[in-house]
Amino acid sequence: MFPVTSSHRLWWTELRRRICLTQPVLSRQHFEHIHIRVGDRAELSRAFTQTDVVTFSQLTGDVNPLHLNEDFAKHTKFGKTIVHGVLINGLISALLGTKMPGPGCVFLSQEIKFPAPLYIGEMVLASAEVKKLKRFIAIIAVSCFVIESKKTVMEGWVKVMIPEAPKS
């Protein structure tokens, strides 16, 4: 009898082989871990403009009139146009990728909710706090709230892979 090997195992073996062949060979001593600790926090603020929303709509194809058409939006429960939730979530991506953990971190998963709308022109503060660390994985609580009214417009958590940086 011939041994049976699943196609998934063959695929995974081939993928690992290709990754190993395409990655530079560096020993562990050439890298140092970027250090973050439980309790570390970072913040980023921004007010989205109508131009930001229109540009985002053009890039993604999300042309929902709730975001673009004041006449349409004024007849909804929101009363006026609102910023795309995914655009708000982009602030979290910017915060994690530029401030903490910083360049090279990779989003692995997220769970978020949008308890209230963000209106165009409102100044929003995005914040992140490391809640749990396990090896190269961080669980980070995230939120965005309107600075003036303290209204929370997004909250949840993300799981990110913490990067390693070459030693200088």
Short structural summary:
By secondary structure, this protein is an alpha+beta fold. The protein has helices spanning 7-22, 50-60, 65-68, 70-73, 85-98; strands spanning 31-33, 41-47, 106-113, 123-134, 137-146, 152-161, 164-166. 29% of the residues lie in helices and 32% in strands.
List keywords for this structure.
168 residues, alpha+beta, 5-stranded antiparallel beta sheet, two-stranded antiparallel sheet, 5 helices, 7 strands, elongated
Mean pLDDT: 81
How is the main sheet built?
5 strands, antiparallel
Rough outline: elongated
Helix/strand-derived category reads alpha+beta
Would you count the extended β strands for me? 7
Distance between the first and last residues' Cα = 54 Å
Helix content: 25-40%
Summed up, the helix count is: 5
Note poorly predicted spans: 1-6, 15-32
- C-alpha-based Rg, rounded: 21 Å
**In oligomeric terms, what are we looking at?**
single chain
Record the strand order, biggest sheet. Answer: 2-4-5-6-3
Bin the strand percentage. Answer: 25-35%
Order of helices and strands: HEEHHHHEEEEE
Overview of this protein structure:
With 168 residues, the chain is an alpha+beta fold. It has helices at residues 7-22, 50-60, 65-68, 70-73, 85-98; strands at residues 31-33, 41-47, 106-113, 123-134, 137-146, 152-161, 164-166.
Reconstruct the topology from this structure:
Elements (H helix, E strand, L loop, with lengths): L6 H16 L8 E3 L7 E7 L2 H11 L4 H4 L1 H4 L11 H14 L7 E8 L9 E12 L2 E10 L5 E10 L2 E3 L2
Antiparallel strand pairs: 1-7, 2-4, 3-6, 4-5, 5-6
